[in-house]
Amino acid sequence: MGKLLLEGCVDSYASALAAAAGGAGRLELCANLCIGGTTPSPELFLQVRQAVNIPVNVLVRPRFGDFLYSEMELREMCGSIERFRLLGANGIVAGMLTADGELDETGMARLIAAAAGLPVTLHRAFDMARDPFAALEEAVRLGCRAILTSGQAASAPQGAMLLARLHRQAAGRIEIMAGSGVKSSNISELWRQTSLTSYHTSGRCGTAQSGMRYRKEGVSMGLPSLSEYEAWQASEAEFAACAAALRRIEDTQADL
Q1: What is the pLDDT of residues 192-232, one digit of tens each?
Q2: Cβ of 68: how many Cβ atoms within 10 Å?
Q3: Which of 10, 33, 181, 255 lies 20 to 30 Å from 203, alpha-carbon distance?
Q4: Would you call 142 exposed, middle or buried from its count of C-beta atoms within 10 A (0-12, 13-18, 19+)?
Q5: Taking Cα atoms as reference points, which of 105, 166, 163 lies closest to residue 138?
Q6: If you average pLDDT over every residue of the chain, what do you get?
Q7: 243 near 24, Cβ under 8 Å?
Q8: DSSP 115-142
Q9: Do residues 146 and 119 lie in contact, with contact meaning Cβ atoms separated by under 8 Å?
């Protein structure tokens, strides 16, 4: 068995540092993780890339919501990919679907062309596809390097059965990476159920409270369900616990 990968999904400089210090082997950098992630700013990417010594992949997603994009949104995504490629991104994370829930092969081909050889991960748009097995084959044909997926469930532990089937179908042609709800408390069991070698986590164990002493009640800048005075932040300790669990698996397999 090869080395197991722990990828940190982060949307801030502080979270990137925590993930790297805790043992993440790679980062997926985004913005607005609380709404599933959107494209980060080039400035944040440069801050993170200069601060960590692990590869940084970049999520390219122009907005919250579905994965059916207009021509102008697709052009925006291609432009973002080209910009991050020139800035030194290790890889790109993106995805598009058709209105009928199939992988948008034409749009994906344009995104992959914009990446110009950078590895492309098909993100969790895959989990909204009508037929995951057909979508996997389409991703292979397009040349995607990996698929980030929860097994089309609310979380990877709930989708473990499908993740295992996808791993068998992939047969080494494309990496299947478990994401959503991956924690130190379940990562070992996920490996036992799926045999996957890549795991994606935000490493979040709570929220960071704002330093604001004055707090205006009854006013929301965004989703009313989200507090303006707390932020999601990665826990170095949680990343360290996930990394330790994966090392124990590696050590156990090496002894067999």
Answers
A1: 999 999 999 999 876 677 777 777 687 666 666 667 767 77
A2: 16
A3: 255
A4: middle
A5: 105
A6: 94
A7: yes
A8: HTTS-EEE-GGGGG-S-HHHHHHHHHHH
A9: yes
Check residue 105 and give its pLDDT.
Answer: 97
Six-digit token pair at 137?
Answer: 């084959």
For residue 206, give both structure tokens: 């709570």
- 252 CB-near residues (< 8 Å, 6+ apart): none
- Is the entire prediction scored with pTM above 0.90? yes
Position 209 scores a pLDDT of: 72
Query: How far apart are the C-alpha atoms of 96 and 108, rounded to whole Å?
Result: 6
Residues sharing a CB contact under 8 Å with residue 18, sequence separation 6 or more, in sequence order: 10, 203, 233, 234, 235, 236, 239
Contact present, 122 and 94 (Cβ < 8 Å): yes
Kind plus residue range of the DSSP H or E element containing 42: helix 42-51
How many Cα atoms occupy the beta-carbon half-sphere of 77 within 13 Å?
Answer: 26
Do 121 and 149 contact (CB within 8 A), yes or no?
A: no
Give the Cα separation of 71 and 254 in Å (integer). Answer: 50
Task: Please report, as a single letter, which amino acid is at residue 208.
Answer: A
Residue 239 backbone dihedrals phi, psi, to 5 degrees: -65, -40
Two structure tokens written together for 89 = 């991104």
Non-local CB neighbours of 75 within 8 Å, separated by 6+ positions = none
